[in-house]
Design goal:
Length: about 325
């Protein structure tokens, strides 16, 4: 029989996309259960031509549920994932709660689907930057081990949730009207501005929590525990697609032509690399797309040895960076059972 699927955090920015992905991909489910905070109980959401009521999450929400897609923050995951597993569900968790737990696989299906076999009831869905970056890095890393990675990100509002997306819209409108706007969700003015990622800063190291997550998770997904990674994460006034500049050092010289061939042949990626037209990956073209866009491929002039390539990547934070990857994991869980 087709599984019963629950979405925890169905009303959130990622939750809405989870519904969309399940519908668009024709996910074989017999029933969909929508869970959120008591504030949303009684609301309805549209799925496959029907309205489904949203229920308040509690310990008994998971009775009869086979797959539970969690996207309501790590506090909710830590509090309720065990209840879901106890009820017999497999949890695909979009929060950071279990990503570094050695007993919980951290999976990007194009990169390390084999890790899924080790799950004990919970599978972690990676941080959005780690998921998008590893789709582009893995095909290169498989052919030529990466020995060092340098990254700078340009991250959209969606990563901070639906309220942050709304703050970007409202503050931009206010700014265009010449009105003042007091930020409530993000720590700094967002309209016509950018700022260092709003994750918690570690004062001793100078790295914020987003950067630390991307480093640890990229290593884990690529299976490269010691990979040196330098990174700067920046929030930019874009609604829903992240972009990133990646500079990759290999053990040997890798030509742009070979890298292009490897990336072109890889699943989940689309090459956008038109030098003549100055057309490269952009958040506007990555938004709403399943594929991660990769381009701006060139030999990095910052490495005199010639062993480094630079590239630019854009991917939909809400899709490959969250909901799509979670649904792809759920699809693999089904095909493996
Ligand atoms: P709600 O809409 O009822 O607040 P986002 O990442 O866009 O901020 O969304 C967060 C999601 O997590 C929303 O669906 C939100 O539901 C849900 N959520 C927040 N707090 C709770 C809670 N205590 N129990 C269940 N769901 C929650």
């Amino acid at each position: 029989a087709s599984p019963v699927v629950a979405i925890v955090g169905a009303t959130g920015a990622v939750g809405v996309e989870l519904l969309g992905c399940l519908e668009a991909r024709g996910f074989p489910l017999s029933r969909l259960k929508l869970l959120a905070s008591p504030r949303s109980a009684g609301k309805t959401m549209h799925f496959r031509g029907k309205d489904i009521g949203v229920e308040a999450l509690d310990d008994n929400s998971f009775e009869g549920v086979d797959i539970a897609l969690f996207s309501a923050g790590s506090g909710i995951s830590k509090r309720y994932a065990a209840a879901a597993v106890k009820a017999g569900a497999v949890v695909v968790d979009n929060s950071s709660a279990f990503r570094m737990d050695p007993e919980v696989p951290l999976v990007v299906p194009e990169v390390n689907a084999a890790a899924l076999a080790q799950h004990r009831g919970i599978v972690a869905n990676p941080n959005c930057v780690a998921a998008i970056a590893t789709v582009a890095l893995a095909p290169l890393h498989r052919a030529h081990p990466i020995r060092r990675l340098q990254a700078a990100t340009y991250q959209a509002a969606s990563g901070a949730g639906a309220a942050a997306m709304e703050e970007l819209r409202l503050s931009t409108a206010a700014s265009l009207q010449g009105e003042s706007f007091e930020p409530k969700v993000l720590p700094h003015p967002y309209a016509f501005n950018l700022f260092s990622h709003n994750a918690e800063m570690d004062e001793a190291s100078g790295y914020n929590g987003e950067e630390t997550k991307v480093i640890a998770e990229t290593r884990r997904i690529l299976g490269a525990a010691e990979l040196p990674i330098g990174i700067t994460c920046i929030r930019v006034p874009v609604l829903r697609a992240h972009a990133m500049a990646l500079t990759v050092e290999f053990d040997e010289v890798v030509s742009v032509e070979e890298a292009r061939r490897l990336l072109e042949a890889a699943p989940g990626l689309r090459l956008v690399d038109d030098r003549a037209r100055n057309h490269f990956p952009m958040p506007s073209e990555a938004s709403g797309q399943d594929d991660v866009l990769v381009g701006r491929l060139r030999t990095d002039l910052g490495d005199p040895s010639g062993r480094s390539l630079a590239m630019f990547v854009a991917g939909d934070q809400l899709l490959k960076g969250a909901a799509l990857n979670a649904v792809q994991i759920a699809e693999r869980l089904l095909s493996g059972r």
